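At this stage, I put together a protein sequence along with its fold in token form, as given directly below:
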Amino acid sequence: MVDWNNIDTLLLDLDGTLLDLRFDTHFWLEHLPRRYAEINGFTVEAAKAEIYPRLRREVGTLKWYCLDHWSGEFGVDILALKREVAHLITVHRGVETFLTSAKSQQKRLVLVTNAHGESLALKMHRTGLRCYFDQIICSHALGAPKEDARFWMRLAECSPFDPARTLFIDDSVPVLRAARKFGLTNVIAIRHPDSGTEKRIIDEFPALDYVNELLPAETA
């Protein structure tokens, strides 16, 4: 799937690609509604009926990924609530082997994530993955999510890369479309971002279940 001799830079997504998306899914769909209901004195069903539509309205925007926005929107400390279930933050299988192999081949590793800075810090603390990366780029610092063309233009300015010699891996199809439109030709989708759900069928892009499938069989 990848000719490593023609790759200098790896742009890697975090949630769903390197980390199991189960944490985020559980937090937004189950833990936040439950705690919101407890705090405000009504049922979990009523909390979900209020929370879910408000979340859906912001999908694909920078607000969707912003803890400060949702803390203000719901009147709760989102980061504090995330810490309550931080034990669910886990690394997908084979990720560290994959990152170690890429480093040994002298590839430049750049984490490109929509995660808010505080959420990113929590996940890096829990997983210890920060040491593998030459650079970490958060979409909040660039003022646009990865779904937005402006993200890719600004990324190329602050962290120059050759689109023809760069591999980008992400679990979001809209994000992959934006990357491809920008000019990245080596893009791969993750089919199984959340261990709590079935793997997806993705026909639009080359796809794999986990990043370690790119490793030689004897390494993976």
Remarks:
- The chain has a mean pLDDT of 95.
- Residues 66 and 191 are 25 Å apart (CA to CA).
- The chain has two domains: 4-20+90-214, 23-87.
- Strands lie at 9-12, 108-113, 135-138, 166-170, 186-190, 207-208.
